[in-house]
Amino acid sequence: MSIATLTLTAALVVGYSAPHEAQPPTEVGERVTVEIVLMRFGPVDPQALRRALAARVPWIQLYTFGTPEAPSPTDDAPGRCVFVDIVARAQGYSTTFILSDGRAYHRDVMGGDGDIRELASAIANTLAAIEDAAIVPEPEPATLPETPHTSVSDPPQAESTSPSSQTDSNASPAKSKPTVSPEPEHQPDAATLKRHIPKDAPNKEGYTLGFSLAPAVAVLLAPGQLQGFSGFGGGLHGSLRFPRGLGLDIGVRILGYERDDLGLRRTRVGIATGYIHRNNHLELAGLAGFSIEPWQLRDAGERISLGVRPLVGGFANLALGYHAQVHNRLALRVGGRLGLAGSTLVSGRVPEIRRANESSPRLGLGGFELTFGLDLTLWISLAKG
User: Which pLDDT does position 314 carry in this prediction?
Assistant: First the structure.
């Protein structure tokens, strides 16, 4: 056997890798935590899909299946590493998800060719459903595909014109061709994936439900004789953010103020709508709406019945904060909130509180009022199963 034949045989042995044997599948209801995705992109533009997935699941480490830096799916806990295969269909794509324990999931994604956003949303939602054990795997366990390996054989020796060399060449005319491993595709690390969020990403984020705590201080601007500090307290809000940024908010705010044994407590209930913008870690919410505000007066701790109706009016709030993803479905916004409101009695008058034997008012409410304070919001993603 010639040296060339031995070289070819060695290259074939090194390049062969037996397919991974799947472990027995675990029970259907077991939850997992997906951290690594090995993806065979198929007909899809890898860079475009990477950008879209970075906006939806930035905590996932994404590797191209078969590259040298990609980890082995069988060397980890079940579910932590998921293999994803993408195949083009007549209308859309067919995706397959395989876990290291053999569980397999199939999902068809409708849409035209090149609809990367729909594909990325479907992949992100399916990964979330796998984590929550919200979907049932295929009845039969699947086998992970063979990991492609490439090898580099020794380079061929330069031809010699000596008779002995020509004799060896004639004895073995078939020479092994060196195989060169392709240049590995650049893989962004997890920190790069978290930082890179395209501008159009919020269009496909899905519905999110928010709960806010907003301590605040109020300042009366006009009219009347008591401009200045008019109360402190805080508010609780429930918000719903739609996929394209539209926001709905229902909130309750309580403010209190006491002066010369006269205490004023106001409870405003409001409903508002507006836009909640997100760009990387920046979140800006602008909302405006209507309110009704019952109020109570106390003298030396005893409630006084005045027989007056609540204040009615409108308000606008602006909240700016840092948006941090703390879990695949949980995020926090920490920042500040600024509000401007105007309210009066139903008659259109702005009330001022004074004692019967005094001409100067002691307390004021209504009119134009500015509020400012902190804002802490917890967002819960209502992802599709």
Answer: 96
Total domains in the fold of the chain = 2
Residue type, 61: Q
Going by pLDDT thresholds of 50, 70 and 90, the confidence category of residue 170 is: very low
| SS (HEC) of 297-347 | EEECCEEECCCCCCEEEEEEEEEEEEEEECCCCEEEEEEEEEEEEEEECCC
CB neighbours (10 Å) of residue 91? 11
Report the predicted TM-score, pTM, of the whole model to 2 decimal places: 0.49
Two structure tokens written together for 278: 């997100």
| pLDDT at residue 276 tops 70 | yes
What sign results for the dihedral spanned by CA atoms 352, 355, 361, 364?
negative
Answer yes or no: is 154 within a domain.
Answer: no
Distance, CA of 97 to CA of 130 (rounded, Å) = 9
Task: For residue 202, give both structure tokens.
Answer: 């919020």
User: Do 247 and 238 touch, CB atoms closer than 8 A?
Assistant: no
> What percent of the chain stands above pLDDT 70?
73
369 with 281, same domain? yes
CATH of the domain at 334: 2.40.160.20
pLDDT digits (tens, 9 = 90+) for 27-79: 455 677 888 888 988 888 889 888 888 888 888 888 888 888 888 766 556 66
CB burial class (10 A; 0-12, 13-18, 19+) of residue 170? exposed
Residue 214 shares a structural domain with residue 77: no
122 plus 230 within the same structural domain: no
Residue partners of 135: CB distance under 8 A and separation at least 6: 105, 126, 129, 385
Q: Residue ranges of the alpha helices (H) in 184-288?
A: 190-195
Cis amide leading into 223 (omega within 30): yes
Q: Are residues 214 and 353 in the same domain?
A: yes
Are residue 275 and residue 127 in the same domain, yes or no? Answer: no
Domain with 366 in it: 205-381
Least reliable range by pLDDT among 270-274, 341-345, 353-357: 353-357
How is residue 162 annotated by DSSP?
S
Residue whose pair of structure tokens reads 């703390």 in the numeric block: 326
247, 317: one domain: yes
Residue 125 C-alpha from the chain's centroid: 11
Q: Are 379 and 210 in contact (CB under 8 A)?
A: yes
| 331 within some domain | yes
Q: Is residue 131 part of a domain?
A: yes
Has residue 155 been placed in a domain? no
Q: Tell me: the pLDDT tens digits for 78-88?
A: 667 888 998 88
